[in-house]
Amino acid sequence: MSQYSKDVDAIASLREKQGSAWEAINPDHAARLRAQNRFHTGLDIAKFTAKIMREDMAAYDKDSSQYTQSLGCWHGFIGQQKAISIKKHFGTMKKSYLYLSGWMVAALRSEFGPLPDQSMHEKTTVPMLIEELYTFLKQADAWELNHYFRDLEAAKETGDEVAAKKAQDQIDNFETHVIPIIADIDAGFGNEEATYLLAKKMIEAGACAIQIENQVSDVKQCGHQDGKVTVPHASFLAKINAVRYAFLELGVDDGIIVARTDSLGAGLTQQIAVSNEPGDLGDRYNSFLDGKEIKDAAEITPNDVVIKQGDKLVAVKRLQSGLFEFKKGTGVDRVVLDCITSLQNGADLLWIETEKPHVKQIASMVDQIREVVPDAKLVYNNSPSFNWTLNFRQQVFDAWKEEGKDVSSYERDQLMDIKYDDTELGQLADEWTRDFQKEGAAKAGIFHHLITLPTYHTAALSTDQLSKGYFGEEGMLAYVKGVQRKEIREGIATVKHQDMAGSNIGDDHKEFFSREGALKAGGKDNTMNQFG
Fold first, then answer.
1. pLDDT score of 101
2. CB-based contacts of 315, cutoff 8 Å, min separation 6
3. Residues 445, 370 contacting (CB under 8 angstroms)
């Protein structure tokens, strides 16, 4: 017996006990409301989705082709439409997540207006967006189930047993649109207590996976900008512990922590790590600091900070900002140490922020990490900050050159030019781009591929195209041909925007509550009927 059927029977039993006082309550309708609102709290969602992610991680460990994906969404409606689209095209939500980007929160959701990705936006905006995303995903459940319930009632009224069985099967085997969110907590928005408090809010809103980075929170930069400053491992691990405590306090025992390292592109640190003995974690962090050897105390100036690196005394290089500089070329070694340390101290997944999408580069670091932690795996940022076309064309160019192939007809620095689009090199680069996720999953330990801010770009592009036509010669045809006609022919549910916003759900509820007295909006004069 399905859960819906069980609920019908249980509510019917309750109704019978209440006698005439509950005469207006229809058990079918009450069970329908339950089915359309499966998740009552954000913690219900966090526990449900954490289980999904853990199962997906285990599946990937057995078979690297079972990687997962997500797109960053900056509004609940965008996340909802993404989920509806995935289910429509692929028949399932499996292996599909949402990503909540701190960059997009800063750029699009702050009350200060558009901000750079430097943790200047209100910290509460992040859990508010998580809650908003799940509100819209739950509404997608209610919207789809509402159609199935309408189909069931219509079939019963006409005595169509085949149609009734089909609708009942769709209800009984319904797959929710509620999927995991990997949520960006930036560098924790303060000290470890601030991180813990914000993590709790995010988990209570529904986040089962929290991504945190090893930058200094008050000078945090976008991973693809200059000026990044990292913290010693002890500071970062304290924040990982804070997030884990938040998960455990709220009963999400299998919550996921994604530890991000920006060390590949970060040349600065705010602090010299505390070291208690040679070779400990603090000593290893400090070994990467740049400086000059001190052979005589007289060489030390009032501005110098002197540490011991191995057997040498070194005055570390300190900038006017008070920050300390790492040795050039140490980024990869620092990344590997960061990742191993994070996994050995409570993190579940890694995020290595790189400057380009290059499978061999990523794999070279992951291979070193896996020598110590064999099941290490990544969340990887398929970032719009990369010029994907130029990067992959240059990768093909370099590979051909190394093979001894003639590349004299191509100019490496000009490969973005449209004239290369239909060339052999351009077409092969497109194939490499197409296969990047598959190759990265198989060869570089990438469990989850995400694009941080794709819907920022799609919103801008589609708005530009509509504006160009509508305010130009095309006029209304720009909307009709470029938007509405495509919605109709491609089966985009928003063409019936009243229904998508909940009009039919509301009408049905009115009928539940007021019965014959319900004043409904979906009658014959509703223009939504023009769309069939």
1. 93
2. 291, 292, 294, 299, 300, 301, 304, 305, 306
3. yes
- Alpha carbon 31 to its chain's center: 33
Mean pLDDT of 416-433: 97
Quote the pLDDT of residue 222: 47
pLDDT digits over 177-224, tens only? Answer: 999 999 999 999 999 999 999 999 999 999 999 999 998 866 645 444
Which stretch of DSSP H or E encloses residue 270? none
Q: Do the Cβ atoms of 449 and 68 come closer than 8 Å?
A: yes
Per the listing, tokens 């509301």 go with 506
Interatomic CA distance for residues 394 and 413, integer angstroms: 8
Answer yes or no: are the C-beta atoms of 272 and 307 closer than 8 Å.
Answer: yes
Convert the pLDDT of each residue in 373-389 to its tens digit: 999 999 999 999 999 99
Residue 266 burial (CB count, 10 A): 25
The CA-based dihedral angle spanning residues 80, 86, 92, 93, taken in that order and rounded to the nearest 10 degrees: -50
**Catalytic positions, please?**
222
Lowest mean pLDDT segment, chosen from 1-5, 40-44, 143-147, 482-486:
1-5
CB 437 within 8 A of CB 446: yes
Residue 284: other Cβ atoms inside 10 A: 17
Query: pLDDT class for 98, splitting at 50, 70, 90?
Result: very high
From the number of C-beta atoms within 10 Å of its C-beta (0-12, 13-18, 19+), residue 251 rates as exposed
Please, where are the H alpha helices in 318-471?
331-344, 359-370, 388-403, 424-434, 436-443, 454-470
Are the C-beta atoms of 496 and 531 separated by less than 8 Å? yes
For residue 110, which amino acid is it?
Answer: S
- 100 three-state secondary structure: strand
